[in-house]
TrEMBL record:
Residues 215-314 form the Fe2OG dioxygenase domain. Its cofactor is L-ascorbate. This is Prolyl 4-hydroxylase. The keyword NADP does not apply. PROSITE patterns: FE2OG_OXY (PS51471). SMART domains: P4Hc (SM00702). Keywords: Dioxygenase, Endoplasmic reticulum, Glycoprotein, Iron, Metal-binding, Oxidoreductase, Vitamin C. GO terms for molecular function: dioxygenase activity; iron ion binding; L-ascorbic acid binding; oxidoreductase activity, acting on paired donors, with incorporation or reduction of molecular oxygen. Gene3D superfamilies: q2cbj1_9rhob like domain, Tetratricopeptide repeat domain. Transmembrane segments: none annotated. Pfam families: 2OG-FeII_Oxy_3.
Length: 323
């Protein structure tokens, strides 16, 4: 049985023959094999088989799109908007999405959600819900219905196929490891999957937290099933040079049992409601870790709780290094 060049290349990589795999893909790409071109683009984005090269990845994606690769078109749109391998270009990304939506129902669905948003020409929100102060110590505010039900469903849909047991950054190595105290499934929506709906939501989260979008880690979506929880913890990272200064939690659904967010220091227990966002500060005004921000996601008793989390750093980050 004859396998495609992309399949052959993946097999060769699995047995440690990456240079041969690259030669096969490059040769096939030169002949116009769109799957080979797409695989090369993915490898240049991932940076494992070859060194990460976002500019080269963008060029390869553009070639794949010109041949008609649908997934390449959606990825190119995401990278155009967030500026990976180039300058962020929201209007250009929207134009590409409108073109893709003519033939791709997934792109059309994203465009429909985008057109319903109150955003400006740069994708930033033109209005936010009136915030409610829930606590001063810890500093916790709520933005009721920051997201619509359709937007919440979109985030869950983007994340669903990528869910895996929760992870955390190891402060000693800076790498992701299995989470010792959070028993949920989750995934980070990295820049290659940050479609325009997700990008606009991240802009809204930045506005709600009073920060720049570049300070936010990739949006993480979590699913808690019965018995799963996030035990009492701080969101800060031990000895981090670029510390987390705030957390934004967005509840994506309701109608399940348990799953409240609890801050013992403020005797504050928040019952989740779909679309609501909670913003709290993790550092004090003098830059120390705010111990009062210690919180827990209480166990879910029935149903499934879906939550989106964005951790905000003091300074802009490179999302490719932690996604």
């Amino acid at each position: 049985m004859t396998h495609s060049p992309a399949a052959n290349a993946l097999h060769l990589v699995s047995i440690g023959r990456a240079s041969e795999a690259l030669a096969i893909l490059r040769s096939a790409g030169d002949r116009g094999d769109v799957d080979a071109i797409m695989q090369l683009a993915v490898w240049h984005l991932a940076g494992d088989v070859v060194a990460r090269d976002l500019v080269q990845a963008r060029a390869l994606l553009a070639r794949a799109v010109s041949i008609g690769h649908v997934d390449a078109a959606l990825m190119e749109i995401a990278l155009t908007a967030n500026g990976s391998g180039g300058t962020p270009d929201w209007p250009g990304a929207v134009s590409l999405l409108r073109t893709a939506a003519r033939a791709d129902p997934v792109a059309l669905g994203q465009l429909t959600l985008l057109d319903a948003m109150a955003i400006d020409a740069a994708g930033a929100p033109t209005a936010l819900p009136v915030p409610e102060t829930l606590s001063e110590t810890p500093d916790v505010i709520r933005f009721p219905r920051l997201l619509t039900a359709a937007e919440c469903a979109h985030l869950a849909g983007v994340a669903a196929a990528m869910l895996e047991p929760a992870r955390v950054i190891d402060p000693r190595t800076g790498r992701w490891i299995a989470h010792p105290i959070r028993t949920s499934d989750g995934t980070a929506i990295g820049p290659a999957r940050e479609d325009l709906v997700v990008r606009a939501i991240n802009r809204r989260i930045a506005a709600a937290s009073g920060t720049d979008i570049g300070q936010g880690e990739p949006l993480t979506v979590l699913r808690y099933r019965p018995g799963q929880q996030y035990r009492l913890h701080l969101d800060t990272i031990q000895d981090a040079a670029n510390q987390r200064v705030a957390t934004v939690l967005v509840y994506l659904n309701e109608g399940y049992g348990g799953g409240e967010t609890h801050f013992p220091a403020g005797n504050l227990t928040i019952t989740p409601r779909g679309g609501d966002a909670i913003v709290f500060r993790t550092l004090t005004t003098d830059g120390a870790i705010d111990q009062s921000s210690r919180h827990a996601g209480l166990p879910v008793t029935h149903g499934a709780k879906w939550l989106a989390t964005r951790w905000i750093r003091a300074d802009p980050i490179d999302p490719w290094t932690i996604s």
